[in-house]
Design brief:
By secondary structure, the protein is mostly beta strands. It contains no helices and 11 strands. Strands 2, 4, 5, 6, 9, 10 and 11 form a 7-stranded mixed beta sheet that branches. Strands 1-3-8-7 form a 4-stranded antiparallel beta sheet, with no helix packed on it.
Length: 124
């Protein structure tokens, strides 16, 4: 089992950057494929990015491709999301998720473990 805790959210102006972190506790962090999802007020949760267990492949939602970068450090048991060129549409609660032994996925229902989320607010 793994516990996930996000950090790094906050208020930023449009065009700015933020780096989210997701720290994991428990063993075998490298056994989990990981993902970032977000939920804006009044909207469904949506996929943002995912990464394989070794970090050698990634996938992004079209809306963030070229602006966001997902990465992981298995030695530090931490997942990251570098967000650049932020705009108001990126305002949401961002959550990290983990999937044991599976491949990376954009489907939230394939992830068993979730963090509590961190708020990102982009002012225009």
């Amino acid at each position: 089992q793994v516990q996930l805790v996000e950090s790094g959210g906050g208020l930023v102006q449009a065009g700015g950057s933020l780096r989210l972190s997701c720290a994991a506790s428990g063993r075998t962090f490298s056994a989990y494929s990981l993902g970032w999802f977000r939920q804006a007020p009044g909207k469904e949760r949506e996929f943002v990015a995912s990464i394989t267990r070794r970090g050698d492949n990634t996938d992004y939602a079209d809306s963030v491709k070229g602006r966001f970068t997902i990465s992981r450090d298995n030695a530090k048991k931490t997942l990251y999301l570098q967000m650049d060129s932020l705009n108001a549409d990126d305002t949401a609660v961002y959550s990290c998720a983990a999937r044991l032994l599976g491949t990376m996925s954009s489907n939230e229902y394939q992830y068993s473990y979730w963090g509590q989320g961190t708020q990102v607010t982009v002012s225009s």
